[in-house]
Amino acid sequence: SMLRAISTSCAMAYRSRDAAARALQAVLDSNAACKALLAEAPAEVPEMLKQFLAALHTPAQVDLAQARNLTTIVVEGLDGTGKSTVTTSLGAHPRCLAVLRTPPTEYAPLRPIFDRLDEESRRTYYYAANYVAGDMAVVRGIEAMQQQPDGFILFDRFYFSTVAYALAHRCTLETLPPRDDPIFTWPADLVPAPTRAILLVASEAARTQRIQGRADAGETAITEEEVKLRKNMEFRQLVGEAYVRCSGMAVVDADGSPAAVLAAVQAELGL
Asked: Distance between alpha carbon 137 and the CA centroid of its chain, in Å?
């Protein structure tokens, strides 16, 4: 349908590093809200943004063949499905070379700036952040593999999260692109590509209980996106369905105890 074509073309707009860089620069040049937020931000934030843009415009100078040979595990899922718990545990595995998140924690102060913008501008930042995080992973991974050739890189969310949320904001269940649409495949110039991708899926009751528990304990705040996930069942279904349609995604039931979920993930990964 026309709607599906529009949704797909929008989401495909950043399927290369150059396109992501151009789109982010356009946001910085023309988005008045973004300019205002950056003007009000502490001095280190604009400086950090310069570093982020430099990293985005300058791909890591590494052997691409080595980069593509890195074993990379990506853990995906809605908040409250146990991603952080699983990645923390897997990160302690003797074969784990590095743990990364998107957007990278090194650029954490940038996230609140972009999270306050319109959805399109916000998502542009998240697309770009995948390339910056990927470079970090490649540099650390290639170096660490010299000592541990059977090691793996671990991601707490990566490109598939960006795709799932972008499509959920733009589509309905009827206009969501089909499973074989190119949007659900990995961009050719984004390294490292996942060797294995795990999607943690929990019941809504279990998911919200965990998030509320963290909020009550003062560990994390409940985000605007989480409020939308709770209130809008179709949005929640859309994110979940978009995740499932991503190429090579293995679904793991995350309703059990942390130990049970971790065991199920390790069994799926053969760790």
From this structure: 14
**pLDDT value at residue 33:** 92
Phi, psi of 156 (to 5 degrees): -95, 90
Do 132 and 52 contact (CB within 8 A), yes or no?
A: yes
Nearest partner of 67 among 202, 227, 190, judged by Cα:
190
* Block residue for tokens 């809605």: 78
pLDDT at 6: 45
φ/ψ of 252, rounded to 5, equals -125, 130
Contact 163, 240 (CB under 8 A): no
Report how far Cα 216 is from the mean position of its chain's Cα atoms. 25
pLDDT, tens digit, 9 for 90 and up, residues 55-112? 999 888 888 888 888 999 999 998 888 888 899 999 999 999 999 999 999 998 999 8
How far, in Å, are 5, 9, 132, 199, 247 from residue 51 at the CA level? Answer: 35, 29, 10, 31, 32
Sheet of 71-76, strand order: 96-101, 152-156, 71-76, 196-201, 249-253
